[in-house]
Amino acid sequence: xxxxxxxxxxxxxxxxxxxxxxxxxxxxxxxxxxxxxxxxxxxxxxxxxxxxxxxxxxxxxxxxxxxxxxxxxxxxxxxxxxxxxxxxxxxxxxxxxxxxxxxxxxxxxxxxxxxxxxxxxxxxxxxxxxxxxxxxxxxxxxxxxxxxxxxxxxxxxxxxxxxxxxxxxxxxxxxxxxxxxxxxxxxxxxxxxxxxxxxxxxxxxxxxxxxxxxxxxxxxxxxxxxxxxxxxxxxxxxxxxxxxxxxxxxxxxxxxxxxxxxxxx
Length: 265
Description:
This protein is of the alpha+beta class and 265 residues long.
């Protein structure tokens, strides 16, 4: 059985859609990649339960590659595990992944994910110039972590209006590019967008793993432990964040929009 879930939203057709497949045993990586290409979503998640425990092996695939970390498909996976009754609502879920163990628990209508903090460090002037050329505007800060570049702009409006050069972004030696600014909108602390054409995702609707970088970045600048971010894609989505030392807690909601089978599976 496959499920399609809209993550980081409380209503259908918003947030970031992910496909979730719970398997009795691990399938070949090539098959999972073919399925992810067929789904043509930012991420397809594949889970295998370890016995009758609340522990699941979890892998994420974009239409073109397997990735090391994905927030919205993990949120979608936790949502489906609870919704299908595999784990009781009051029990935490644990995922074994390429980024180590990730956990999820419920907080009212919200799901909280425990992820690693992915702090960015400033880049060289040459790298900053490359990012400036890709964006068409000059950031006030450019950094990078193990996965992505991070560019801070002066204003929320600049982030929303951005039309980057996807060819230049696709040539970056990174998973993608996070663009952010402090928010002018009441109820939000910061705003962001995320571009990853090299993974077959020109603009990701809502990127949980990008907030593993954004949370410590904005904590240092705003002096807050708990914040709320808005990812300003066409679909849009809200992510609550809390920095907990070397970890980041990501809060979001999720809605199931489809259940289906793949013939021959």
